[in-house]
């Protein structure tokens, strides 16, 4: 969409607030498209292919990983942005970056790093994604991180809403320099809402995982289609598809019902967002940032239905004994790796081990945490086996 077709409250790549380190504009891409390309080429992005969504990445080829989840989020974010006449490159870029800091083994991995880092400055996967794009990715001779546009970095840290109230939490201390007057010299306006494009990425995340967790849960045999008949959103879709195609097989029924559920949720967001933009008289990007509430959101009725669906998924899928076993094993792997690396940083690869060779335990813990958070599921399992297996490993 050319910038002449964009809504007045859309971000404009030609009016970007720029990058922390100046770079001449690209001849072939807008600032936001260039950001997207940098994320796609990042090591942290490639590693998402072996990071768990709900099921450990090696449990089956058809389940979502963080990478396929991020691609689904990006597709939905782009569709929402296009329908709202926003900059779809920016929405897609923030969506692709939103999980770059997620550790291995999904939420079990994050929970374990939160425990291990409790005395050393904390851990938060949103902050870790921010650190990946601003300092940890090491691909350019001129700067640390990816040197992304202001609007992209703002969206990565603020896509779920203002964050200034979180700056006192230890895990968020690295974001403090980006507040007004902070030493980063780059004010991300942490007390305001992010762009509508960032809000599209945030809601696309909700739409994607609620739908694909239903899909993966049925495929994994943790729940059946009959279990879902009385559940809001998916139940009515199953009934509708059965009415239209009485002879449909279960596989196609599941796929079609989930596809329609995504459509229903997208339409709900577009209707509710249009209503809020009008009600709050939003005209400019500044109006979006200074608004009293999120603009891109579900209707109240959809929030109610989603709460019931999430409760069902939580009880029947996320806490299923098979998933619990994986969580238990994952937490044990990470806690043992963390303790070992803290005691013997010299067994880590030099780029992580050397920063950890310091008497400052907080600094050491951060280096250990960064190393573990970057691991894929498979790599974490392999490293754990090499270091803890009693077989004499000759290929250390």
UniProtKB/TrEMBL annotation:
The keyword GTP-binding does not apply. InterPro entries: dGTPase (IPR006261), dGTPase-like (IPR050135), dNTPase_2 (IPR023023), HD/PDEase_dom (IPR003607), HD_domain (IPR006674), HDIG_dom (IPR006675), PHydrolase_assoc_dom (IPR026875). The keyword Hydrolase applies. One of its GO terms (molecular function) is dGTPase activity. Pfam families: HD, HD_assoc. GO terms for biological process: dGTP catabolic process. PROSITE patterns: HD. Keywords: Hydrolase. Residues 66-210 form the HD domain. Belongs to the dGTPase family. Type 2 subfamily. NCBIfam families: dGTP_triPase, HDIG, PRK01286.1-1, PRK01286.1-3. HAMAP family: dGTPase_type2. This is Deoxyguanosinetriphosphate triphosphohydrolase-like protein.
């Amino acid at each position: 969409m050319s910038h002449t077709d964009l809504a007045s409250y859309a971000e404009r790549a030609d009016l970007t607030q720029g990058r922390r380190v100046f770079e001449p504009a690209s001849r072939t891409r807008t600032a936001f498209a260039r950001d997207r390309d940098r994320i796609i080429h990042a090591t942290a992005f490639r590693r998402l292919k072996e990071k768990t969504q709900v099921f450990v990445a090696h449990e089956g080829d058809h389940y979502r990983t963080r990478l396929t989840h991020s691609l689904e989020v990006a597709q939905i974010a782009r569709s929402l942005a296009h329908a709202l006449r926003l900059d779809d490159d920016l929405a897609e870029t923030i969506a692709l970056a939103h999980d770059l800091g997620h550790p291995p083994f999904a939420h079990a991995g994050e929970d374990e790093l939160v425990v291990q880092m409790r005395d050393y400055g904390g851990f938060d996967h949103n902050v870790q994604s921010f650190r990946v794009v601003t300092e940890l990715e090491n691909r350019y001779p001129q700067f640390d991180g990816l040197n992304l546009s202001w609007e992209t970095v703002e969206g990565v840290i603020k896509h779920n809403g203002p964050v200034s109230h979180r700056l006192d939490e230890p895990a968020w201390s690295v974001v403090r320099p980006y507040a007004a007057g902070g030493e980063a010299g780059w004010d991300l306006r942490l007390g305001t809402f992010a762009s509508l494009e960032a809000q599209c990425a945030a809601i696309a995340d909700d739409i994607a995982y609620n739908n694909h967790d239903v899909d993966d849960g049925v495929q994994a045999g943790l729940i059946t289609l009959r279990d879902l008949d009385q559940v809001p959103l998916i139940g009515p879709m199953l009934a509708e598809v059965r009415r239209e195609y009485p002879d449909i097989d279960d596989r196609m029924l599941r796929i079609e019902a989930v596809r329609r559920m995504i459509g229903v949720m997208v339409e709900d967001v577009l209707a509710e967002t249009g209503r809020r933009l009008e009600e709050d008289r939003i005209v400019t990007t500044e109006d979006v940032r200074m608004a009293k509430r999120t603009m891109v959101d579900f209707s109240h009725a959809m929030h109610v239905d989603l709460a019931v669906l999430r409760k069902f998924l939580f009880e029947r899928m996320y806490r299923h004994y098979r998933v619990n076993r994986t969580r238990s094993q994952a937490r044990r792997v990470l806690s043992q790796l963390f303790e070992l690396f803290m005691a013997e940083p010299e067994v880590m690869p030099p780029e992580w081990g050397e920063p950890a060779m310091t008497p400052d335990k907080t600094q050491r813990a951060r280096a250990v945490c960064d190393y573990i958070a970057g691991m894929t599921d498979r790599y974490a399992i392999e490293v754990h086996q090499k270091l803890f297996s009693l077989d004499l490993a000759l290929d250390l």
